[in-house]
Design a protein that fits this description.
Layout lengths: L3 E5 L3 H12 L3 E5 L11 E2 L3 H6 L3 E3 L23 H7 L5 E4 L4 H9 L3 E4 L4 H22 L8 E5 L3 H10 L5 E5 L3 H9 L3 E2 L5 H4 L5 E4 L8 H4 L7 E4 L11 H5 L3 E3 L3 H5 L1 H17 L3
Parallel strand pairs: 1-2, 1-4, 2-3, 4-5, 5-6, 7-8, 7-10, 8-9, 10-11, 11-12
Length: about 290
């Protein structure tokens, strides 16, 4: 049976994922993805109904939504697509593939009897995506900072997959990396990789020394009193998912350069990131994961 997929919304990752599925021989239709020189065998739908009608698998954008109400669509599309409208059109014969889904979204899909592929939970995807995130972050740090990395001390918040990839890539380039991480096993792993794990009590001494702060934790870690200890030239890079690690008005409130950087792979490595999404979903469908 020929596989069919509807790719809806999102950034260039969706376009390159579409091209990847075409090479597999799948029937591919796109709706509200970026304007892109698609292969002639990829169909562009004019309506969401048309995209979903004959497609067994639906590939949602990453992230699915930014405001909790509407689907993330190409930046050139100005007509919102409410998530409720999308849910109402899905059928129990379809599979919904997404980077991640919150509890409410999962419940809605369960009630629709739709199978869910949360490809963001795949080890293959998480490891490769973390590398792409670290590479893109390095590019952005170099672009935004007016000083050399070789003279910089970095404070890294969190040592999950992204933190690990960032530490490995940045360590040879900077003076030192201080790490805030509660998990003891991750602390030991970081120590073996040359990072300096610090406690909350150490922060009052460490924060004034740091030129760069990188956050990977989707939660507030540093209290306002701690932020005020940072040097005025310290640059903060927040790559965590919502609700992020710092408020959007951090620059205004603390006079610190603050950069919120969601979706780094889609901005810096859309070809590789899009193919990674395609390969992950291909593997999950082949092995019925």
């Amino acid at each position: 049976m020929e596989q069919s997929i509807a790719i809806i919304g999102g950034d260039l990752r969706q376009c390159y994922a579409a091209e990847y599925f075409r090479t597999l021989g799948w029937q591919v239709v796109c709706w509200h993805t970026p304007d892109f020189p698609f292969h002639s065998e990829i169909r562009i739908a004019s309506h969401l109904d048309d995209a979903l009608q004959y497609s067994r698998l639906i590939l949602a954008p990453a992230p699915l939504t930014r405001d909790a109400d509407n689907l993330v669509q190409s930046e050139t599309i100005h007509t919102p697509c409410p998530l409720n409208s999308l849910w109402s059109k899905l059928t129990e014969t379809q599979i919904f593939a997404a980077l991640s889904l919150d509890d409410t979204q999962q419940q809605i899909l369960r009630e629709k009897n739709c199978r869910v592929l949360a490809y963001g939970a795949s080890s293959l995807f998480m490891n490769e995506n973390a590398l792409l995130t670290a590479e893109g972050l390095l590019s952005e740090v170099i672009r935004c900072t007016p000083f050399s990395l070789s003279s910089a001390n970095i404070l890294l918040l969190g040592y999950g997959r992204c933190g690990f990839a960032i530490g490995k890539l940045f360590s040879p380039l900077c003076q030192s990396i201080y790490l805030v991480e509660k998990d003891g096993k991750k602390q030991n792993l970081a120590k073996n990789n040359g990072l300096l794990s610090v406690t909350a009590e150490d922060l009052s001494q460490i924060l004034p020394r740091c030129q760069i702060l990188i956050n990977t934790i989707p939660a507030s870690v540093l209290e306002p009193s701690m932020l005020r200890l940072l040097h005025h030239s310290c640059h903060i890079f927040d790559i965590a998912s919502a609700p992020y690690g710092f408020p959007a008005d951090t620059t205004r409130n603390y006079l610190l350069p603050y950069y919120r950087l969601p979706g780094i792979p889609g901005r810096f490595s859309p070809i590789t990131a899009g193919e990674l999404i395609g390969k992950t979903i291909e593997r999950m469908t082949e092995h019925d994961l």
